[in-house]
Design brief:
By secondary structure, the chain is mostly helical. The chain folds into two domains: about 90 residues, no CATH class; about 220 residues, MetI-like (MetI-like fold, Orthogonal Bundle). The protein has twelve helices and two strands; from the N terminus they run ααααββαααααααα. Strands 1-2 form a two-stranded antiparallel ribbon. A hairpin with a 4-residue loop joins β1 and β2.
Length: about 325
């Protein structure tokens, strides 16, 4: 197992390196002069040239990339010139809020997606199967940001059951219950699409397993149907479901960008949107690379979990 984890970590190095190249090139190809955008009305030629020199935006593109990569390898993501603070400090401060939102969404989509898929497969072509399929199709079809806005109109504006936006109440609150009340709508909106995807793929994996000979043998021996479904079939189906969980974890992490904007959640997604509007290239680069690295590491963890269920994967 140790050698398998080491191989996966080594294979992630070129992926992360490719991510840094893509992110840097995309930021470099943005039209306009970042220094001029920052200075605004003070953007005289001398001031622009001086700020470009201070920000390290002078010189060939390859030289600027190697310098940025060198600092990145030493844990230095640069300094935000819009916030005037280290990018790593800002990213880590915002990541805790994003982790709460993405973690809650992932738990919701994993639990309800797997549960819906198992029930749908166990009641194939029955009322439960058709009802779950109908709800799943709606969940997959509706964009998360649109669902979030509709939830705000219904539960916050009309019914006034839940707060409109933010992570905590502006006045008072700040405890766990306050956090949960603010978390319900954004986590549900973010988890809707992922729940539908997981439910459909879990149903397909379960139906394939339920047709296997050893399942028929277990039923012929008189094993209780509940044990057949949850004890035998689900364990075998999880080998196919776990990689999907890894992909959906990346989806909820990246989807936090627009959900955090809709609900004004103080996480990395909202930070990136604000940084793009302010042309804070250093902060955008650092934030995107950090999120991408988390996504890669999470997929490695998913592969390890999959190998524990099916040892053949390691070979």
């Amino acid at each position: 197992m140790g050698r398998y984890i080491l191989r996966r970590l080594i294979s992630a190095v070129p992926v992360l390196l490719g991510i840094t190249v893509i992110v840097f090139l995309i930021m470099a190809m943005i039209p306009g002069d970042p220094a001029a955008a920052i200075l605004g009305s003070y953007a005289t030629p001398d001031n622009v040239a001086r700020l470009n020199r201070e920000l390290g935006l002078e010189g060939p593109l390859w030289q600027r990339y190697l310098l940025w990569l060198w600092h990145l390898l030493h844990g230095d993501l640069g300094r935000s010139y819009a916030l005037n603070r280290p990018v790593l400090d800002e990213v880590l401060e915002r990541f805790s809020a994003t982790l709460v939102l993405a973690g809650a969404s992932f738990i919701l989509c994993a639990v309800f997606g797997i549960l819906a898929g198992v029930v749908s497969a166990a009641r194939q072509y029955g009322f439960a199967d058709k009802a779950i399929t109908f709800v799943v199709l709606i969940g997959i079809s509706v964009p998360a940001f649109f669902l979030g806005m509709m939830m705000i109109l219904l539960f916050a504006v009309d019914l006034r059951w839940l707060p409109v936006s933010g992570m905590y109440a502006i006045y008072g609150g700040g405890d766990l219950m306050d956090l949960l009340r603010h978390l319900i709508m954004p986590a549900t909106a973010l988890a809707a699409v992922a729940t539908g995807v997981i439910a459909r793929l879990t149903r397909g994996a379960m139906l394939e397993v339920l047709r296997q000979d050893y399942i028929r043998t277990a039923r012929a021996k008189g094993v209780h149907e509940r044990r057949v479904i949850w004890g035998h079939a689900l364990r075998a189906a999880m080998v196919s479901v776990i990689p999907v969980l890894g992909i959906q974890a990346g989806f909820v992490l990246s989807g936090a960008v627009y959900i955090e904007t809709v609900f004004q959640w103080p996480g990395i997604g909202r930070m990136l949107v604000d940084a793009i509007l302010k042309r804070d290239i250093v902060l955008v680069q650092g934030g995107v690379v950090f999120v991408a690295a988390c996504y890669v590491l999470f997929n490695i963890a998913v592969d390890v979990a999959q190998s524990l269920l099916d040892p053949r994967i390691k070979t």
